[in-house]
Request: fold
Amino acid sequence: MDIKMNVAELNIFAQEVFPQVSDQLHVEEITDQGCIIRWKVDASNIRPGGTISGPTMFSAADVAAYLATLSRIGPEALAVTTNCSIDFMRKPAAGVDIIADCRLLKLGRVLSVSDVLIYSEGEPKPVARASLTYSIPPK
Amino acid sequence: MDIKMNVAELNIFAQEVFPQVSDQLHVEEITDQGCIIRWKVDASNIRPGGTISGPTMFSAADVAAYLATLSRIGPEALAVTTNCSIDFMRKPAAGVDIIADCRLLKLGRVLSVSDVLIYSEGEPKPVARASLTYSIPPK
Amino acid sequence: MDIKMNVAELNIFAQEVFPQVSDQLHVEEITDQGCIIRWKVDASNIRPGGTISGPTMFSAADVAAYLATLSRIGPEALAVTTNCSIDFMRKPAAGVDIIADCRLLKLGRVLSVSDVLIYSEGEPKPVARASLTYSIPPK
Amino acid sequence: MDIKMNVAELNIFAQEVFPQVSDQLHVEEITDQGCIIRWKVDASNIRPGGTISGPTMFSAADVAAYLATLSRIGPEALAVTTNCSIDFMRKPAAGVDIIADCRLLKLGRVLSVSDVLIYSEGEPKPVARASLTYSIPPK
Reply:
């Protein structure tokens, strides 16, 4: 799969389309199969029990799959999630960032399918896993 | 399934455990099988294309399943989501609230399983569906 | 949603396209939102512990979603499942048939989304729930 | 994670607990993170369009996750699937076996979570992906 947007371009694009979370979201790396993003955890992401909220981890997985797809097809802001399945496996550490590592499993003409492992930074075992399908709008 | 918390009690509880979204979240009704909640959409919930963001719909589904579970077992703040599968089916209307209608399919000793239909208020067809598993902490 | 195939037509169609399970599969009813099918359990469906196997319940959900879709669009044998999420909630009774009750939540031009509740015949509580997406081939 | 059952032991165990598919199922390898199984495709696995049926791929994913779990905890025949999410991404080749490569993402005291990539033998791109949760019975 050719790379259509590099890390710098993805970060500029992400700032534009996700202004609400522009301080929290950072593309770290484009990988052979997808990309890795960082979600900078702040107080809005904490839930009862001192852990990271489920919606925060969903957001990180969703954005990672979106940006992994766009890194290969170019800036199609209107790609939309059609399905996500997510398993929350371990309690994330509250004081550290979340790292989402996404690999594209299929990049078709109208759909992408990817999976994501989510880590608390510095921890070897994933805290969550997700799979996502994105619908790619016709040109 | 006996009701352990009524609408007023659930709303007070929700305000306490979700202070970040206390302005947006409102329990509307306890139903025979679960509960109905309203998510008051604001600017933070909008994404490219003028629609409601996926994380907002995930949040509404997640909170609805949590509160439906607690309405039957009482205030167990530490119940945690272990799995969610969500399908985004239609573009939600941007200017209206989201209504999440949750029914409990199983309420066991350690797990609850529920499904949720999410609507744009006033529209007959659901914009999303979700199923969720919650892990209930031991007493 | 108009009905394009009635119960008799669906049963004839199902016998043709699923010859391996033609003895086990029976469409019982077309409902307002989808259809109800029966899976006649036999020895091939039993797994360790004297219960119905997961693949049997997956099959029942998959066929129910397929036939519910075709009941509204006509005999498109090549519609294919693209996603299924299934929760196994209770141990099914080993000696009774499985009933799968499917409702179509979205019937678009290229995709259908449905959910299915699976029961052991005669029991009020579902043993499993599933959601499925079918891709509908272009005409 | 210690290995409690090797390839030969897993194969003997699988033959006993899955007598209906004992001719079709073979454990190929125990890997660092899980195991790889082969599903020998026969006529019972084919569906309209000359492809492998969805239930066959579900079965392969389900068995792979079961055996990967047991390879680390020992022969607990009564472990049961509680959830599966599966994406069917590409049309499998009809004439070749299916290979399911499972990795355990979490092995807890009461639950295992794993994901599986399913391949048509000899093809580099996966035809399906699945994630599964198994409930492990108390000792």
